Amino acid sequence: MRLFFLSSFVRGFSPSPSYLCSSFSVLWPFSLAHKKVRRWVKMVRGKVEMKRIENAASRQVTFIKRRNGLMKKAFELSVMCDVEVGLIIFSQTGKLYEFATSSMAETIEHYQKYSEMMQSNDSAILQDNPHLLKAEAAKMMAKIEQLEASERKLLGEGLETCNIEELKRLERLLDRSLHRTRTRQMKLYKQRTEELEKELAAAAKRIPQA
Question: At how many degrees (to 10) do helices 17-46 and 2-10 cross?
Fold first, then answer.
């Protein structure tokens, strides 16, 4: 139907209005279905499982792409909506990447002032409402218990109640912690080695030549 409809114009055939309407009514549902299929394929292809990328090269490539995309979105948000934006990213190796509409120091100062103001307002509200104060204290106790339980699990205690997903999450946390620890350790070793080399060089200069 579509090929005949297109080829008729090439041959100089002038279709009647009724023919055009009937052809369009036949082709239109197929066009909509085709768009829906293409949209569905894009959704399936674009679905990414939220978990740590095990391959180091793929993880680095993904980090660079997502970091650049995030900074681009932050810039677009600041320009299009005329808002103050501050973005801080630390890579796995500890390298800093940042974006700020004006100055990162000014943005952080603005955030700290706002946080202090909100904390003072919350304190005043809690003091005037004993019931809210009790509820906040109970909430803080629950958070403390949760943190203590997480700490025990990181130490290898109380793992009997963990399911597979929780164990995988703990494993990823330990892997990241181990990587950062080793990176920091190697950095300190390197600094100490350089210091010793400088001390040896200085000591060699002080030794009189025979």
Answer: 130
Which residues, in sequence order, are CB contacts of 62 under 8 Å at separation 6+?
53
Give pLDDT tens digits for 102-160: 888 888 988 888 888 887 776 666 666 677 667 777 788 888 887 777 777 777 777 77
Q: Roughly what angle, to the nearest 10 degrees, separates helices 130-154 and 104-128?
A: 120
Nearest to 50 by CA among 146, 168, 147: 168
CB 23, CB 15: distance < 8 Å = yes
Name the DSSP letter for residue 208. P
Q: What is the pTM of this model?
A: 0.41
* Residue 102 and residue 110 in contact, taking contact as beta carbons nearer than 8 Å: no
Q: How far is CA 128 from the centre of its chain?
A: 39
CA–CA distance, 98 with 88 (Å, rounded to integer)? 5
Question: What's the rounded Cα separation, in Å, for the pair 75 and 80?
Answer: 9
Tokens of 124: 């005043």
Tell me the two tokens of residue 35. 């768009």
Residue 156 phi, psi dihedral angles, 5° rounding: 90, 15
Query: Torsions phi, psi of 90, nearest 5?
Result: -110, 125
Measured from the Cβ of residue 187, the count of other Cβ atoms closer than 10 Å reads 12
